[in-house]
Amino acid sequence: MASSPCGNSNFDSGLEIKTRSVEQTLIPLVSQITTLINHKDKPKKSERTLAAIHRVGQAVSVAVGRFVAVGEAIATENQELKDEMGQACFEARRAGDAIAQLTDVGSAVPSQSDGRVTVFSDRTGMVKAARLLLSSVTKVLVLADRIVIKQIITSRNKVLVTLDHLERVSTFQEFVQIFSQFGNEMVEFAHLTGDRQNDLKDEKKKARMAAARAVLEKCTMMLLTASKTCLRHPDCESARINKDAVFHRMRCALEQVIEIVTEARSCGENKILTASIYNGIKDFKSSVECLRENPYSLSPQSVAGQLEALVERTEDFTDSAYTSHEQRQAILGLCQLARQDTQQLVHAWVEAQSVHAKEPTEDMEVSILKTCQNVNDLRRELHKVAVGRASDLLKVHGEQLPLRALKAAGAEGNLEAVAEYSRTLTEQKEQLVETCRLLCHVSGTEPLEITCIHAEETFHVIGPQIISAAQTLALHPSSKIAKENLEVFCEAWESQLCDMALLLKEINDVFEGRRGDKRPYLSLPRPGKHSANLKTAKAVKLDAEEQTSMAKLGLELRLLSSDVDTEVEKWEEQEHDIVRQSQSLASMAYNMYLFTRGEGLLKTTLDLFHQAEVLSEEGLQLCSSLRTFSAQLVDEEKSVVMTEMEKLVALCQQLQMGAKTPVQGKTATFQKVDSSIQTTRSILTVVLSLLPFCNKLNKKYKSERTSLSSPQDWRERQDSSTPVKEEGALNSKNSNGFGVKSLEQHMAGLNLLESK
């Protein structure tokens, strides 16, 4: 089907589908049309078949009518798209009417002589109407998508104007007034770009958007304290340098967001993905394995050249001062083995070509296998070196000794000590930057490569900013604002270390073949809800400063939810109640983490409190499962589980009561948010301590049941646990599971039908 001569060019000329919301809107329509076209061509049709086809045709027509009404309403709100949208809506309505007419066969079986044109007598007409309908509907959706892009650009422009005003203010009073406006504009921009990020189909763009938004999130708080410090100490050079760096970084991040949503090409995009060793190995193996299909598809020189380029990239590892002698020798040895095996392959290959062999010889096949195995071993060794170094650095830097020393030296006004500890921090920064570069080589996917590059750039930028903030404090040791400013930059450093720990886990997951799909969120505009000036929701949204203060707590929540997922994966019984309920808790906690970033499905504090209630109920269900599980345990084991379970019950009840308690005022709401997230963190901590212990006990008793229990004992135990399992299943239904073919497959099928 993919090679159909029709292709997709006639369908989507210039209308590439870039977002999940457009794709998901089209899929049901494509399915219904495919049903109409794929009806069985039998000479006689039963009345039941005719009625079914009639219903589907009428349903398509009615759905198109509603859809067109929405499109026309959007056109009214956006005059610049009125003509294009109007034409697309007109074509969609015309195609919908044609389909309704062609499927008007449900009243009676048509006779040979009635002369009516139907889906049975005019199959070509149906295909043409279907293609016109899909083309026009897609155009309406793509035009609607332009509105989302326009909203993001408009929001960015407002932020830039206010940013310019902020940079030029000269009094505290003026700064406070403008920063308040800036905070509101940044929250609006964060929500728009968060929706867009979740909606993008291209994973590379999604990763670049996430990186840019992370910079904006962290820089907002830095901008506040750096600007205040500069206003308090206007003649301080280090304070000015500190502030200028923040403003420059924010402007670059804002520009990157616009490049992504408008698909503008920039030099930054071209250099963002340097050639990684992972991609080099993948391409080299692909070339070598292609020789099985066609020994004449490549030249021996090109394959040897690919290997040399790959070996050259390993110099980032072997030339590093931080790579141990043993690791360096292991990498060099594997590179040499790969060269030898490739030379043997080339020799066997040339011999096969000299006798005009049509398929690989036995020597070639053996060489292909050995060469691929060696580069796999090389990849494994490089992964071990990069991940091992990153893990060691995170352990060492987790103590934050240079940061503490810098804070203390700055507060004492000791410029010499600040200079000494700045050198230590600079060395740590260089280690982290180089380690991020190595992780990029072994990350395994382009989105993770982008995240590694973002981490590298962040450490590279924040290191000098911490030093300039510490110098400012040392020059003005009694300044509370200078002290607060240094604290904010140090927290940004610690936050990036947390992000690096998560990145490390994701790289390991890819290497070991574990990848979790994120739930998509759709961002198509609807009439009245996405005008240029967004209306504020009735429920409270956190402002930029509050989101920043929540960021650290949110990151802890994300780490814990990730750790829970890791522990859950170790269970053999993935359908066990404890496993399912723990997974559900981790998923809801992750949603709460996204809320602290202004992303995800929880948009307002009311959404968060509702999620907290649901999480507490799921936690109490887990307690019920733990109680049932503990019934089979001996006294000491049972005591440990019951003690932790009681802690969990108390925390879930605390979360439930807190979420249901009404509050008034912004400060009280913020405190309630903080309390909800802290209690959720405590719940996950208890769950994380229980999971490995319960898994160990489950394996132990499962083994004993298999070898010692009588069939009658086992049956009784199963019967007693069934009601709990059913109840758990009812409370943890996956509402996000649905199986549909991709849009591309549907379109390929439609094109093939037309070509028949």
TrEMBL record:
PANTHER family the UniProt entry points to: ALPHA-CATULIN (PTHR46342:SF1)
GO biological process, one term: cell adhesion
GTP-binding as UniProt keyword: no
One cellular component (GO) term of this entry: cytoplasm
The name this protein goes by in its record: Alpha-catulin
Ranges of biased composition (kind: Basic and acidic residues): 713-728
Main location, first listed in the record: cytoplasm
UniProtKB keywords: Cytoplasm
Cellular location(s): Cytoplasm
Region (Disordered) location: 705-740
Family the entry assigns: Belongs to the vinculin/alpha-catenin family.
MF-aspect GO terms: actin filament binding; cadherin binding
Source organism (scientific name): Amphiprion percula (Orange clownfish)
